[in-house]
Design brief:
mainly alpha; 65% helix; single chain; elongated
Protein backbone atom coordinates (compact mmCIF):
# COMPACT_ATOMS: atom_id res chain seq x y z
CA UNK A 1 0.00 0.00 0.00
CA UNK A 2 1.38 3.39 -0.97
CA UNK A 3 1.74 6.21 1.53
CA UNK A 4 -1.03 8.15 -0.19
CA UNK A 5 -3.40 5.21 0.40
CA UNK A 6 -2.47 5.01 4.07
CA UNK A 7 -3.00 8.74 4.57
CA UNK A 8 -6.32 8.62 2.70
CA UNK A 9 -7.44 5.74 4.92
CA UNK A 10 -6.46 7.73 8.01
CA UNK A 11 -8.34 10.81 6.81
CA UNK A 12 -11.46 8.76 6.12
CA UNK A 13 -11.43 7.42 9.69
CA UNK A 14 -10.60 10.75 11.31
CA UNK A 15 -13.45 12.42 13.17
CA UNK A 16 -13.86 15.62 15.09
CA UNK A 17 -14.11 13.76 18.40
CA UNK A 18 -11.73 12.05 20.77
CA UNK A 19 -12.05 8.32 21.56
CA UNK A 20 -14.14 9.01 24.67
CA UNK A 21 -16.38 11.41 22.75
CA UNK A 22 -17.06 8.67 20.22
CA UNK A 23 -17.93 6.24 23.02
CA UNK A 24 -20.33 8.75 24.56
CA UNK A 25 -22.11 9.12 21.22
CA UNK A 26 -22.71 5.35 21.04
CA UNK A 27 -23.93 4.77 24.60
CA UNK A 28 -27.61 4.08 25.19
CA UNK A 29 -29.43 6.86 27.05
CA UNK A 30 -29.53 4.99 30.40
CA UNK A 31 -25.79 4.22 30.24
CA UNK A 32 -25.00 7.82 29.32
CA UNK A 33 -27.01 9.08 32.29
CA UNK A 34 -25.22 6.64 34.61
CA UNK A 35 -21.86 7.80 33.25
CA UNK A 36 -22.79 11.48 33.63
CA UNK A 37 -23.77 10.76 37.25
CA UNK A 38 -20.44 9.00 37.84
CA UNK A 39 -18.63 12.10 36.53
CA UNK A 40 -20.77 14.42 38.66
CA UNK A 41 -20.22 12.29 41.77
CA UNK A 42 -16.43 12.30 41.15
CA UNK A 43 -16.04 8.54 40.79
CA UNK A 44 -12.38 7.56 40.36
CA UNK A 45 -11.26 7.59 36.72
CA UNK A 46 -9.91 4.05 36.98
CA UNK A 47 -13.36 2.81 38.08
CA UNK A 48 -15.09 4.53 35.16
CA UNK A 49 -12.51 3.27 32.66
CA UNK A 50 -12.73 -0.26 34.06
CA UNK A 51 -16.54 -0.23 33.71
CA UNK A 52 -16.31 1.05 30.13
CA UNK A 53 -13.72 -1.59 29.23
CA UNK A 54 -15.89 -4.34 30.69
CA UNK A 55 -18.62 -3.17 28.30
CA UNK A 56 -16.18 -3.51 25.38
CA UNK A 57 -15.15 0.14 24.97
CA UNK A 58 -11.48 0.94 24.44
CA UNK A 59 -10.47 3.91 26.56
CA UNK A 60 -7.91 5.02 29.11
CA UNK A 61 -7.66 7.26 32.14
CA UNK A 62 -5.69 9.73 29.99
CA UNK A 63 -8.55 9.94 27.46
CA UNK A 64 -11.04 10.40 30.27
CA UNK A 65 -8.94 13.16 31.88
CA UNK A 66 -8.36 15.05 28.62
CA UNK A 67 -12.04 14.85 27.65
CA UNK A 68 -13.32 16.00 31.04
CA UNK A 69 -10.84 18.90 31.15
CA UNK A 70 -11.73 19.97 27.59
CA UNK A 71 -8.20 19.25 26.34
CA UNK A 72 -9.28 16.76 23.68
CA UNK A 73 -10.26 17.41 20.06
CA UNK A 74 -14.02 17.25 20.70
CA UNK A 75 -15.90 20.39 19.65
CA UNK A 76 -16.19 22.80 22.56
CA UNK A 77 -19.69 23.89 23.47
Amino acid sequence: MALADKFAEYSAKKTGKCPLGLILDKLPKADRQALDKAFADNYPARLIVHALREEGHKTSTDSLYRHNKGLCKCPKE
